[in-house]
Amino acid sequence: MLQVIEPATETVLEQIPRAGAAEADAAVARAKAAHPGWRAIAPADRAKLLYELADLVESALDELALLEARNAGKPITDARGEMGMVLDTFRYYAGAPERMLGDTIPVGGGQAFTVREPLGVVALITPWNFPLTIAAWKMAPALAAGNTIVLKPAELTPLTALRFERLASEVLPPGVVNVVAGPGSTVGSRLVAHPDVAKVAFTGSTSVGRAIAASAAHTIKRVTLELGGKSANVIFADADLERAAAAAPTAVFGNAGQDCCARSRILVQRSAVERFMALLEPHVRAIVVGDPLDEDTQMGPLISASQRDAVASFVPAGAPVAFQGSVPCGPGYWFAPTVLYPVDRGARAVTEEIFGPVAVVIPFEDEAEAIEIANDTIYGLSGSVWTENGARALRVARAMETGVLSINTNTSVRVATPFGGFKQSGVGRELGPHALDAYSEVKSIYYATEG
Ligand code: NAP
Ligand code: MG
Which bound ligand lies closest to the C-alpha atom of 126? Predict the structure, then answer.
């Protein structure tokens, strides 16, 4: 059995059967059997079923939010927001079956045109930090494009995915949505190697992403990867410093820092560092860390003891802690929001993804140095630029090597806009119209009209 832990209490939330390779094979077989029927449903009818699924998700939003808050240890207000995005994602892609458009192409002797075909069975492998949200980013476009799916949620947080599977079974044909809750080492690796799986969509660590890409190469599977990050929040002296300082904590301490988009490197123009730090400190100290089910809580615990220990290794005794928030006593995998300054540019906290509530502040002299420091990382997921100089904002935004970038805000994830990484932050895009390309193949058809 799999013991699912509640990280705020360190107690067992639920016990569920632990799947293995055999269950993964059975799920692929069900998805394969269901595929011809699912792809044959007329686009408007498939859209109708997906809208019905979205309505069911809407009716279960409170229940899903509570489950996610308890299992992932995230504030209930955040969990409600995330479930809202799950719903928006299903609604956005529900209309897509009728928008899988192709081209007509002028050629001689006939007519050439393209259509988009589904891939078949796709495997979706997801992490524990935004369990149902990230699964929805994959499930909704995959289903809309005519694929059937096998979802492997993280073992730490499988509950909302399993609840979703039951919801889906109320409206979709059997075998279209399959959830297999088991370890990455057995279920995950089996799905990646399985000859009947056409594509793997993965979100998680760069190291596992690398292993998945290597394994998937044997069967030439399509692979999209959403991996880690070490994103920069670049603040120029001419920015609205009060707004930038008020926004910076959420950008790195949101979800207790367990966010691939976390702006964990705060780059501040040297002439403004002192003032910025003075503005930032009260915001960090005021973060309410505690019971995820309390409406006032802004930050919950980390997901596990091992995650807490990994984060703690970035803040050893004698680390340059500028200031820290506070945490509750008693059970729970707590770690206080922490700002490190000044830091050595080669320090682990500066170069490695921490995936916890630890930020570093790094001064820069000018635009060129800001860009150089921002890009000095193997990652390239997200980032922000704060300046009142519009031309500079655009120059820096274009020069930063990241898949998503925001100006004078730290928000960069929207259902309608593409999301994904440059460099070792990943391959491919989720969300927006681009995600549909990642779950379909282009077919070119030539119809001879002469000879
Ligand atoms: P992880 O260890 O990479 O795990 C992610 C998923 O992959 C889990 O479901 C895991 O299963 C599974 N898995 C592990 N080994 C596998 C293998 N050999 N073959 C197939 N699947 C395998 O990541 P995590 O610890 O859950 O999450 C933290 C990391 O994810 C961070 O580094 C973070 O940056 C990254 N992340 C990135 C994004 C993004 O959108 N770019 C979003 C969230 C997280 P089990 O854990 O159940 O065994
Ligand atoms: Mg892991």
Answer: 1
pLDDT digits (tens, 9 = 90+) for 115-131: 999 999 999 999 999 99
Which residue minimizes the CA distance to atom 10 of ligand 1? 184
Say if 333 falls within a structural domain.
yes
Question: Residue 243 maps to which CATH number?
Answer: 3.40.309.10
329 is catalytic: no
Sequence-distant (6+) residues with CB within 8 A of 429 are: 224, 403, 418, 419, 420, 435, 438
Tell me which residue of 337, 262, 332 sits closest to 301, measured CA to CA.
332
Among all bound ligands, the one having the nearest atom to the CA of 128 is 1
Does some domain include residue 97?
yes
Looking at the structure of the chain, the number of domains it has is 2
Is the pLDDT at 344 greater than 90? The verdict is: yes
* Tokens of residue 280, six digits: 């930032």
Answer yes or no: do 65 and 211 share one domain.
Answer: yes
Atom of ligand 1 nearest to the CA of 208: 3
Q: Report helix angle 61-72 to 76-94, nearest 10.
A: 130
The confidence score (pLDDT) of residue 244 equals 98
| Residue carrying structure tokens 């880690």 | 228
Q: How far is the CA of 386 from the centre of ligand 2 (A)?
A: 33
Instruction: Determine the Cα–Cα distance for residues 26 and 259; give it in Å rounded to an integer.
Output: 32
Question: What gap in Å lies between CA 243 and CA 365, rounded to an integer?
Answer: 21
226 is catalytic: yes
